[in-house]
Amino acid sequence: MWLFLAFVGIPLIEIALFIQVGGAIGLWPTLGVVIITAMLGTFLVRNQGALALGNLQRSFSELDDPTEPLAHGAMILVAGALLLTPGFFTDAVGFSLLMPPVRVAVFNYIRKRIHVQSFSMGATHTDTRRYAQDETVIDGEFVEVDPSKRPTHQPSGWTKH
């Protein structure tokens, strides 16, 4: 239901704002503002996205929890989509998502409503823990070779036989 309201409500808000702003400043200035906000938004999204990617790489290299940098990156991506969508309401929401304090507030709001049951980085060693007490168990891999199989083709000549 919320998605339906968003798909109907947001275009209605945008149309109303276009009519109001266009009536106040005219058609060409309104279109100019829309184009300038798209270009400015693209520039800001590129810069903020590079910073978010750097924070994500830092969290991976320091083995920190990457959820916050990932959430910031996702919000910057949403901000970019909103800024490229023509309209004043979507531009306002997009520009607000580019502000780090707003992203932190949104992240904290979402964090309070999501419960993470477990988090791990790197390989898990559940199989080796089972045999930690028994020193007679050797972990390994094997491939069964059937010696009766013969090749069905002639050697290529690239190797000696």
Produce the secondary structure layout.
Blueprint: H1 2-25, H2 27-61, H3 67-84, H4 88-97, H5 100-113, H6 126-130
Helix pairs in contact: 1-2, 2-3, 2-4, 3-4, 3-5
**DSSP E strands, number:** 0
Largest sheet: none
Average predicted confidence as pLDDT: 85
What's the helix count? Answer: 6
Task: Flag low-confidence runs.
Answer: none
Q: What class do helices, strands and sheet pairing give? A: mainly alpha
Give a description of the structure.
The protein is an all-alpha fold and about 160 residues long. It has a domain at about 30-115. The protein has helices spanning about 1-25, 25-60, 65-85, 90-95, 100-115, 125-130. The longest helix has about 35 residues, at about 25-60. Helix 2 (about 25-60) runs antiparallel to helix 3, helix 2 (about 25-60) runs parallel beside helix 4 (about 90-95) and helix 3 (about 65-85) packs antiparallel against helix 4. It contains six helices and no strands.
What does this entry show, briefly?
The protein is an all-alpha fold and 161 residues long. It has helices spanning 2-25, 27-61, 67-84, 88-97, 100-113, 126-130.
List the main descriptive attributes of the protein structure presented here.
161 residues; mainly alpha; 66% helix; elongated
